[in-house]
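Appendix C: a fully annotated inverse folding record. The material below is reproduced so that readers can follow the format used throughout the book. The structure is listed first as tokens, followed by the designed sequence.
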């Protein structure tokens, strides 16, 4: 289980590092997609693990709380991304700063979720 989560995290990191100097609209789109795919795959593995091996109530609550937190931040990121895509000024510093802040929160949230569902 840990190796699968590590693999998913590594792939996401490589994708994000490969984004380079593209526009904030392009990189934000790629970040949202890669984060959603990573979390979706990790949750599928977690669900399969939980149904096969069983988990404690504490593990279940921890995973649910982390996933709920991730969903709130992903929603915020999607809203800011939509604003970025609609903006007439594609270099609006207010939106850029908002995106940078929410993308950091999203990365932290994803990392916390992945650590919450890892089996020790």
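Designed amino acids, in order:
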């Amino acid at each position: 289980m840990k190796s699968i989560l590590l693999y998913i995290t590594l792939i996401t990191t490589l994708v994000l590092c490969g984004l380079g100097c593209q526009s904030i609209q392009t990189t934000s789109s790629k970040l949202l997609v890669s984060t959603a795919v990573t979390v979706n795959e990790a949750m599928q593995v977690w669900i399969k693990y939980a149904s096969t091996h069983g988990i404690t109530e504490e593990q279940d609550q921890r995973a649910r709380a982390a996933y709920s937190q991730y969903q709130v931040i992903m929603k915020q990121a999607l809203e800011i991304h939509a604003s970025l895509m609609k903006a007439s000024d594609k270099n609006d510093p207010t939106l850029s700063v908002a995106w940078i802040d929410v993308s950091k929160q999203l990365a932290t949230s994803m990392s916390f979720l992945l650590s919450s569902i890892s089996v020790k």
